[in-house]
Amino acid sequence: MTQAEKEIRFQEKIDREIKIEPNDWMPDEYRQTLVRQISQHAHSEIVGMLPEGNWITRAPNLRRKAVLLAKVQDEAGHGLYLYSAVETLGTSREQTIDDLHSGKAKYSSIFNYPALTWADIGTIGWLVDGAAIMNQVALCRTSYGPYARAMVKICKEESFHQRQGYESLMKLCSGTPQQKAMAQDAMNRFWWPALMMFGPSDADSTHSDQSIKWKIKRFTNDELRQSFVDATVAQAEILGLTIPDPNLKWNEARGHYDFSEINWEEFWQVVKGNGPCNKERLAARVKAKEEGAWVREAATAFAKKRAMKKSA
Ligand code: FAQ
User: What is the CA(310)–ligand 1 centre distance, in A?
Assistant: First the structure.
């Protein structure tokens, strides 16, 4: 079979909604796109533990601490499923992590913003996990089997994350004026970065057209962003929080909310490494790898010893 025939067969499979599995033939570009997207997604889960992890010791009570601890541990689990999904495409975890540390691979822009107050933790759960779910529910139907299956479990956990964030904010918003003001301040700082999570506008998205053809992506960046805005406005109203956008308005003709243009200059600056916390986040991951070297060495020595015992 020629390369062209293989490609036609591959696309037919995708069009018939048959999942692509690790041992199936796939175009190199499909494999590369998946390695790029899934590894970036994995890194986002792991780097995403940092802003929230920073608040575990300062949670206001035992219940909030237990919930936050569970959430941060879930994010670590998500990272691990996703690194495994990348391994099924032939790229080792070591390589994937090295690409993050050398700056070759990206992670979500959102995690380059600091979590300054306790209200930020609720807001991250509500808006950041909320945006992540909007994107990830669609990924449960992505064409690559191992990625789709990982997303099903991840989405169930992200739902709990979103709800715990919202519940935490409900408490703050019905508390003292200072607590409500703290929630509004968090909303003001996180609203626009949460909208940026969906990526550049469709006109500027490099990969969307091909990824939609391959059904890696089911919706465009702008479509998902719009769905997120539409779903979130009523939630903000219930909390009594104001979305920091004077142009946010229901458009009857479109059946959607209109909203202001995103500050794309800020988005690209953050993506390029110039956000408020980029350097700090990467340094924390590199340090964690260095400080964990002895654990990996001990585990390898133990595995070798056990293998020798078995073969003796
Ligand atoms: N940040 O052509 P497109 C979470 C890059 S999970 C940084 O549109 P694509 C859970 C993009 O890589 C959050 N870079 O790209 C949690 C590309 O650059 P490249 C992560 C971005 O891939 C919650 C260039 O811009 N979720 O939060 C961003 O078709 C709380 C052109 O863009 C996922 O990763 C960005 N926001 O669409 C954890 C979901 N957006 O690679 C802890 C899976 C774009 O050519 C606490 N990923 N870029 O150098 C996706 O769905 C897609 O990759 C998109 C981007 C939609 C993010």
Answer: 45
Pocket of ligand 1 contains residue 108 by CB under 6 Å: yes
Could you tell me if the CB of 33 is within 6 A of ligand 1? no
Instruction: Output the average pLDDT for the chain.
Output: 97
pTM as predicted: 0.95
pLDDT at 201: 98
Which neighbouring-strand residues pair with 250? 257
CB of 45 closer than 6 angstroms to any ligand 1 atom? yes
Determine whether the shortest distance from the Cβ of 105 to ligand 1 is under 6 A.
no
Q: What is the pLDDT of residue 156?
A: 92
Closest residue by Cα to atom 30, ligand 1, is 129
Ligand 1 contacts CB of residue 36 (under 6 A): yes
- 134-144 pLDDT, tens digit each: 999 999 999 99
Q: What percent of the chain stands above pLDDT 90?
A: 98
pLDDT above 90: residue 251: yes
Asked whether 232 lines ligand 1 (CB < 6 A), one says no
pLDDT confidence bin for 64, thresholds 50/70/90: very high
What number does the ligand 1 atom closest to the CA of 45 have? Answer: 38
C-alpha 142 to ligand 1 mean position (Å):
15
